[in-house]
TrEMBL record:
Domain Transketolase N-terminal span(s) in chain numbering: 20-272
Record's protein name: Transketolase
SUPFAM superfamilies listed in its UniProt record: Thiamin diphosphate-binding fold (THDP-binding) (SSF52518)
Family under the similarity heading: Belongs to the transketolase family.
Organism: Olsenella porci
Alphabetical list of Pfam families matching this protein: Transketolase_N
Alphabetical UniProt keywords: Thiamine pyrophosphate
Matches recorded under CDD domains: TPP_TK
Cofactor dependence: thiamine diphosphate
GO molecular function: magnesium ion binding
Amino acid sequence: MAETRSQHTDAELEKIAARVRQGVIVGTHAAKSGHPGGSLSAADILTYLYFEEMDVDPQNPNDPKRDRLVLSKGHAAPGLYSVLAERGYFPPKELETLRHVDSRLQGHPNMNDTPGVDMSTGSLGQGISAAVGMALAAKHWGETWRTYAILGDGELEEGQVWEAAMFAGNHGLDNLCAVVDWNGLQIDGTIEEVNPATPIAEKFRAFKWHVIEVEDGNDFAQLRPAFAEARATKGAPTCIVAKTVKGKGVSFMENQVGWHGKAPNDEQFEQAMAELKKGE
C-alpha cells in the first residue's frame, strides 16, 4: 500500500517549492538546455501534489495502489524530476545529469527509466489522453486511486486534448483531476498572440467537467482548497485552471517568453540560486 498523505503547512510547502525550483536551475544549467520557464511556473502545483495531495511511496514507486501523475506538458520535465528528487525517488545530485548521455533524466519523462514517472510524455496532447485511460482503468477495476494530469495552456491548442476531455466528461471520470498551468506564454509568444484556447474554464465546462478557477496557482493557500474540492467532486472529472507566472521565483525569468526553453549561463545560475535560496 502507498503511504498515507502527509500534512504540511503552507509555509513548509513554500520552502519545499523553493528547493524544487533550485533543482530546476541546477538541472538546466548542467545540461545547458531544457525548459526552466514552465517548470518554474508549475513548481508549486507539483510540490502540492507530491507532498500533500497524492498517495505515493518513493520506496515503492510502482505500487499498483498509488495515485498517478501524468505531466502532459512533458517539456517541463526538469520540474518533475526536481520534485521527485526532493520527495526521495532518487538523489538530488542526479539532477546534474539532466539530458546527459546515459542519464535517467532525459529531456522528456521516460517511465521506463525514471523512478516515479508514471507516463512517458512529450508530444503535446497525448499525456491527458493517457491520464484519461488510467482513470478509466481504475474505474473498470474498481480501484480507488486517482489520476492527475498537468497541461500547459499552449498545449490546449492541440485537438487531442479536447477529444480526451470529451471522453472523460461523457464517462464521468471523477477520479481524474487535470490542472492547466496557465502562465500565458508559449514557445512562440503569448497565448493570445499564437492561438488562444480561451475561455478555458467555459470550454471544460462544455465538455461536462467540474471546473475550479484559481487566481494564483503559485499560492498554496489557494491550491489547497482547490484540490480538496476536486477530491470531493463526484460524477464528473475536475479541471483546475490555475493562473501562474512563467519563470516564477527567478526575477529575470518571470513573464519572459525567452525562458521557455533556454538554460541559464554561469552568471545567471548564481543569481537565480541566490534568489531562490532566500525562500528556504
